Amino acid sequence: MHILILGAAGMVGRKLLDRLVKDGSLGGETISRLTLHDVVPPEAPAGTTIPVSLSASDFSDPGEAERLVAGRPDVIFHLAAIVSGEAEADFDKGYRINLDGTRRLYDAVRAIGEGYKPRFVFTSSVAVFGAPMPDPIPDEYLTAPLTSYGTQKAIGELLLSDYSRRGIFDGVGIRLPTICVRPGKPNKAASGFFSGIIREPLAGQEAVLPVSDQVRHWHASPRSAVGFLLHAATIDTKRLGDRRNLTMPGVGATVAEQIEALRRAAGDSAVARIRREPDPTIERIVSGWPRTFDARRALELGFKAEPDFDAIVRAHIEDELGGKVPA
Amino acid sequence: MHILILGAAGMVGRKLLDRLVKDGSLGGETISRLTLHDVVPPEAPAGTTIPVSLSASDFSDPGEAERLVAGRPDVIFHLAAIVSGEAEADFDKGYRINLDGTRRLYDAVRAIGEGYKPRFVFTSSVAVFGAPMPDPIPDEYLTAPLTSYGTQKAIGELLLSDYSRRGIFDGVGIRLPTICVRPGKPNKAASGFFSGIIREPLAGQEAVLPVSDQVRHWHASPRSAVGFLLHAATIDTKRLGDRRNLTMPGVGATVAEQIEALRRAAGDSAVARIRREPDPTIERIVSGWPRTFDARRALELGFKAEPDFDAIVRAHIEDELGGKVPA
């Protein structure tokens, strides 16, 4: 089985790669080749005998999509995107990468023809939803995004369904929750604090909480995100019918609930490292985000997230801290 | 006020034009110029002193969108599209005209800049919805089309909202019900019988009914369709917020109710001209269509449809038959 990962240098891409290399197979089939692509050169995985091709380019450039699928990968994981803030700041770049690039990939698969019909896993986002929204948001709720990023993802979903319906590829679109706890350094994303208030205290560092304790949001661990991708790559898509895009399950937790989970895992001293510093701008941005989902279809189809925020904290401690909670 | 109509040679386009010429104004502003475009040469309206420019081309050709908006029309009515059956049969043509062409128009407006911000009225379709669907379909229901045409319209809607949110133009997307009674000759569209079973008997002709009496569908007269377009062109869009696409109101009627309305208007002899000839193919196609809508937002925003199917029959008799019901 030949697997192509677009966006292989990103956090989720690297974790997916690690898992594929560790497993050596996907859905019972041995992985015979990995093609890793990103706009920056992706790192080759260590300790594997699977042949790996690395490539770095702007996949929306003319000819790139064709080049990337020319090797006829059996499974394509499309994780590449301009993130929300940049797609909002740079209209042309966002539409070029997130919409035109994605469509070029779809069309490159179509252009091959000759019975070539890969599994195409597209990472979408809960940003396809926009206020006003019910809480929880059901699977049949209107996708009415309030950002260009969300618009581009919603269009990617529509095309994925139509191309799948027409037999061009076998697509599954998954709307990822906010990934928490993101490993690594704090970043400037408006959502950064959701991870920061767990990650930094566990690392003995101070974290800033810019919003109220009552803010509720939808989370899944990096480990669950990888699980979603693998399940999307292997599920019998007959079970999906024509609706190829699924809101992934997650944990709906308030900031207060996040903090209590941190306390249970690492005690009062960890919680004491969270400094409240209200930021009206971030508070306002976050207030427009979806809170929780009734992700019934995905659950029925076997997608699995953590049962509660404690499990998300535990996953971080196991996967990033070697299972050890610092004193 | 300069008005551009794309798709001006179509049935709805011609009726819109007739109304604009008759009124001489739109939203209280005198119409100073009309630009009419279609893939076939549109007819110049008779009896008007308004300067009219006519043009015929494929608006998705490179440079055409820019040419069409170069005169900076204040209102753009975009009615041009490849219809459902053709978009399904010809993948490339459907995407080229319905998606790329529409996006080129949007981008041509953006390219002008300099504060140019026209009202952009986009005709969408209830084909953005696909089974399974509730009955009636609420305004917040997921757009999950089951045709390439519906996909292309749903994408046009998403782009319309995003471009409007970003201040590129002031867009309103309207999802038209099935237009009934369509004047003219019977056509081969699967939906043709909805009009045929009224139009042909009123013209003393036999009509074929290929589906069960219990089939329910969503209708509005050509007169209402023009009303929707005019209201979309003049409404205060602050009232719409960021959700720029609206399901238009209509009349949900079963075929049996249509037939009873015909009987009330023209008697048993007219009804006797309907010949039942079940067609499993058409029955199957129609069974996948939406039935009725709870078009609450559009009604609250002042869009008006007929109150019942009798009014739709009456509109046809008044507008197409000079008010006379044949004996």
From TrEMBL, chains A, B:
Organism: Methylobacterium currus
NCBIfam families for the chain: ErythonDh
Keyword annotations: Carbohydrate metabolism, NADP
Domain of life of the source: Bacteria
Residue stretches making up the NAD-dependent epimerase/dehydratase domain: 3-218
Protein name according to UniProt: NAD-dependent epimerase
PANTHER family named in the record: ADP-L-GLYCERO-D-MANNO-HEPTOSE-6-EPIMERASE (PTHR43103:SF3), NUCLEOSIDE-DIPHOSPHATE-SUGAR EPIMERASE (PTHR43103)
KW Signal (keyword) present: no
GO molecular function terms listed in the Swiss-Prot or TrEMBL record: oxidoreductase activity
Record carries keyword Ribonucleoprotein: no
